[in-house]
């Protein structure tokens, strides 16, 4: 009879974390920025496979890492939000609850499965001016092991996140207009990109959560619209 | 709220059937007695006009011979380019409209694109078919579905039967207890090239005719300020006929009547 080798839990966790980090480090970056009128999400993504998506009226999703894994997670989020909104009310679907749910799913996979999820995600929720206790935006970042953190102003995930964050920390100002936040987002992503030149418009995926919209706040910008916003 | 159910597709209705069946209770067991207790909506109509489609409904709901509500809403925006109008058992019908609107949004979010108008109508027909056991017990849901087909650039509308049978109408349709009278009125006033004002006029005239002949249909209620819901759907999405627009048209009908006219 063969005896299984003993591996300490610390070692197992460290190995899994190392594995997940390697997977994510290969990916490109995403930034989420609060601006005057809502939240801007911008990803370096030249493909037609979206990394940014709508979850609910005020909530958006962004994922880096393995596409199949974070896209599956996005769908879980949509199912969770739509079911909750149907069973209760649309106002009952909140970013924090959703971010916690994601953290739980990701954390459970990390401890139980042999292979952890190779991803990192952002859950962004734009505030609601009608309610005193819901005016603020929320930005949550969830890592491959389920670790969740909340952020003010901006948040970045992906491969070269340090370079991206350096630019954001230096240049971000609270209450900046949408156009300016888009320019900053592009600068920050360009700093993290492999080539040193500024990223082409075609390789940017841009979505906005707009406070002022009626109903669903999420919209996606076409290449022309992104161009227009950056030129303005 | 379960985080990872077994359903992996893009339909919200199927998601409920598979993972959340308690949110879709089977009403067939309660049958007749439930059908008597739930209020009934009366007259709704839909027709194509120059810019798209118009869908309208009166505001009355009845329970037996009593008024259950004077300001019930029977016309729903199921997504930015489609409308659903209900008559018959109000409880399950309103719920179906709610599920359909979540369904269409859910599909769009999961798949990244909207369903075609025909796809939406087809989905509704599957939901009606799933309700057949309850329909056989008197809780029938037989809506009208209409919208603007953004690919074909025109308004389209469908009626349904309790088995989910789906019939596209090219002109107009009205259902519910006053539906026959509304159809008769539309037969005289409807033309394919009606403009917005003409369309609203035809809708108010049809609902007024239905309210005249069918005691369960409520028309325009000027004393209480309760107006029918009239929604128009065009290439730029939905808009509602305002109460002023409806009141103006209705007053002209009253004036014609007072002057000895027939309407």
Summarize the structure.
With 232 residues, chain A is of the alpha+beta class.
Please render the helix and strand layout as text.
The complex is a heterodimer of chains A (232) and B (263).
Chain A: H1 9-25, E1 30-35, E2 38-44, E3 52-56, E4 59-65, H2 67-87, H3 95-112, E5 119-125, E6 138-142, E7 148-151, E8 154-157, H4 161-171, H5 178-192, E9 204-210, E10 218-220, H6 223-231
Antiparallel strand pairs in A: 1-2, 1-8, 2-9, 3-4, 4-5, 5-6, 6-7, 9-10
Helix pairs in contact in A: 4-5
Chain B: H1 12-19, H2 31-37, E1 40-41, E2 44-49, E3 52-57, E4 61-63, E5 66-69, E6 75-79, E7 82-85, E8 88-89, H3 90-111, H4 117-130, H5 132-136, E9 144-149, E10 154-160, E11 166-169, E12 172-175, H6 179-189, H7 196-213, E13 229-234, E14 237-240, H8 243-258
Antiparallel strand pairs in B: 1-4, 1-8, 2-3, 2-12, 3-13, 4-5, 6-7, 7-9, 9-10, 10-11, 13-14
Helix pairs in contact in B: 6-7, 7-8
The unreliable regions of chain A are none
Helix content of chain A: 25-40%
Radius of gyration of chain B: 19 Å
| Low-confidence region ranges of chain B | none
Order of helices and strands of chain B: HHEEEEEEEEHHHEEEEHHEEH
Secondary structure tally: strands of chain B: 14
Question: Can you tell me about this structure?
Answer:
Chain A is an alpha+beta fold and 232 residues long. Chain A has one domain (23-231): Aminohydrolase, N-terminal nucleophile (Ntn) domain (Glutamine Phosphoribosylpyrophosphate, subunit 1, domain 1, 4-Layer Sandwich). Chain A has helices spanning 9-25, 67-87, 95-112, 161-171, 178-192, 223-231, and strands spanning 30-35, 38-44, 52-56, 59-65, 119-125, 138-142, 148-151, 154-157, 204-210, 218-220. In chain A, a hairpin with a 7-residue loop joins strand 9 and strand 10 (218-220). Chain B has 8 helices and 14 strands. Chain B has a 5-stranded antiparallel sheet with strand order 12-2-3-13-14. Chain B has a 5-stranded antiparallel sheet with strand order 6-7-9-10-11. Chain B starts with 11 loop residues before the first helix and ends in a 5-residue tail after the last helix. In chain B, helix 6 (179-189) runs antiparallel to helix 7 and helix 7 (196-213) packs across helix 8. Chain B has 263 residues and is an alpha+beta fold. Chain B has one domain: 4-Layer Sandwich (Glutamine Phosphoribosylpyrophosphate, subunit 1, domain 1).
């Amino acid at each position: 009879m063969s005896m299984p080798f003993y591996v300490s839990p610390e070692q197992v966790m460290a190995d899994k974390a190392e594995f997940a980090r390697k997977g994510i480090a290969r990916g490109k970056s995403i930034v989420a920025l609060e601006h005057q009128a809502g939240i801007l999400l911008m990803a370096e993504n030249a493909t037609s496979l979206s990394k940014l998506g709508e979850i609910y009226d005020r909530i958006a999703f962004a994922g880096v890492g393995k596409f199949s894994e974070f896209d599956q997670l996005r769908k879980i989020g949509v199912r969770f939000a739509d079911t909750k909104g149907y069973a209760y009310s649309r106002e009952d679907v909140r970013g924090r609850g959703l971010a916690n749910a994601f953290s739980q799913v990701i954390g459970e996979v990390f401890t139980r499965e042999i292979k952890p999820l190779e991803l990192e995600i952002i859950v962004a929720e734009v505030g609601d001016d009608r309610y005193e206790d819901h005016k603020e935006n929320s930005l949550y970042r969830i890592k491959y092991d389920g670790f969740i953190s909340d952020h003010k102003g901006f948040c970045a995930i992906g491969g070269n996140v340090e370079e991206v964050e350096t630019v954001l920390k230096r240049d971000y100002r609270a209450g900046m207009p949408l156009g300016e936040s888009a320019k900053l987002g592009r600068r920050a992503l360009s700093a993290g990109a492999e080539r040193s030149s500024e990223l082409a418009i075609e390789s940017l995926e841009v979505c906005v959560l707009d406070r002022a919209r009626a109903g669903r706040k999420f919209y996606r910008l076409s290449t022309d619209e992104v161009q227009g916003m950056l030129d303005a | 709220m379960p985080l990872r159910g077994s359903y992996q597709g893009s339909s919200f209705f199927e998601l409920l059937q598979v993972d959340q069946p308690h949110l879709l209770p089977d009403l067939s067991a309660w049958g007749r007695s439930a059908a008597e207790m739930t209020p009934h909506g009366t007259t709704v109509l839909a027709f194509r006009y120059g810019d798209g489609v118009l869908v309208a409904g009166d505001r009355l709901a009845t329970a037996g011979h009593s008024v259950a509500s004077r300001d019930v809403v029977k016309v729903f925006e199921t997504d930015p380019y489609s409308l659903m109008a209900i008559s018959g058992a109000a409880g399950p019908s309103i719920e179906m409209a709610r599920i359909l609107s979540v369904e269409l949004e859910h599909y769009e979010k999961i798949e990244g694109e909207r369903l075609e108008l025909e796809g939406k109508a087809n989905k509704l027909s599957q939901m009606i078919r799933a309700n057949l056991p309850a329909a056989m017990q008197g809780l029938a849901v037989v809506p009208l579905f209409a919208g603007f087909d953004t690919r074909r650039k025109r308004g389209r509308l469908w009626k349904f039967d309790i088995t989910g049978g789906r019939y596209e109408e090219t002109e107009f349709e009205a259902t519910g207890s006053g539906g026959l009278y509304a159809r008769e009125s539309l037969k005289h006033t409807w033309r394919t090239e009606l403009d917005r004002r003409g369309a609203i006029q035809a809708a108010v005239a049809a609902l007024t005719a239905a309210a005249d002949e069918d005691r369960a249909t409520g028309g325009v209620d000027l004393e209480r300020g309760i107006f029918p819901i009239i929604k128009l759907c065009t290439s730029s999405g939905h808009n509602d006929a305002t109460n002023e627009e409806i009141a103006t048209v209705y007053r002209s009908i009253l004036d014609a009547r007072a002057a000895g006219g027939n309407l």
